[in-house]
Amino acid sequence: MHAFKFLSGFQVVLVALTIALQAAAVVPQVWHDFVLYAKYSAPAYGLICPQPLGKTLVRKIDNLRTGANAYIVRDDQRCEVVIAFRGTSLITDALTGVRFILVLLKSTGIVNGGLVHAGFPDNYNSVAGQILRTVKTTKLSRRQCLKGRTVMVTGHSLGGAVAAVASYRTTNPKLADKLYTYGKVLIVVGNLVFARFVEARVGKNNIFRGA
């Protein structure tokens, strides 16, 4: 007798990534981190997770108007602050996803950030202030972290698209040190100028994308 389990969309993506990356003989540490931040994306779909992956939850942030939702975690062992954006879960999220008009990316200090899918910057900007303040004031307890910390931004589906938009934001000189997105293969976040802009801000070698 064979037992079959119906997988959620997120689980299917994670299984597909596992098979593809193992087959490609990815460097072990790269593979480990890719799976790790995929797992961080999952708790974003819950109402609240007190200890995502056993780490310290710093803050849960949401906006009822736009449906924007994210949580921020402190990992003292890895000297990291992780920002995870939720994917499509509510009607407001779906409305964000169908706003296909491309608009000019606007932000302080940005001259030409390209064109972006209208719903994504609106989603992120509605919680950006809270996220930036929280990241700025989050302190890591481990002494080794005084030398510096890493800010990781991740998200699945809509959350991945919003994470991509969020990564350009400037906090000396950017929000994200590394960007991990999953399951946004059908979502057009922005045009080529925007893609190159994010690559220039975050760095090509610091951006990881799973279909």
Question: What does it look like?
Answer:
The chain contains six helices and eight strands, in the order ααβββαββαβαβαβ. It is an alpha/beta fold and 211 residues long. It has one domain (9-210): Alpha/Beta hydrolase fold, catalytic domain (Rossmann fold, 3-Layer(aba) Sandwich). Strands 1-2-3-6-7-8 form a six-stranded mixed β-sheet, sandwiched between helices. Helix 1 packs antiparallel against helix 2 and helix 4 (119-137) packs across helix 5. The longest helix is centred in the middle third of the chain and has 19 residues, at 119-137. The radius of gyration is 17 Å and the shape is globular. It starts with 8 loop residues before the first helix and ends with a strand. 36% of the residues are buried. The model is unreliable at 1-7 (pLDDT under 50).
Query: Which topology does CATH recognise?
Result: Rossmann fold
Low-confidence stretches: 1-7
CATH class call: Alpha Beta
E-strand count: 8
Main sheet: strands, sense, barrel: 6 strands, mixed
Question: Count of DSSP helices?
Answer: 6
**Which architecture per CATH?**
3-Layer(aba) Sandwich
What is the topology, as strand order, of the major beta sheet? 1-2-3-6-7-8
The global form is: globular
List keywords for this structure.
alpha/beta; globular; about 210 residues; Rossmann fold; 8 strands; 6 helices; two-stranded antiparallel sheet
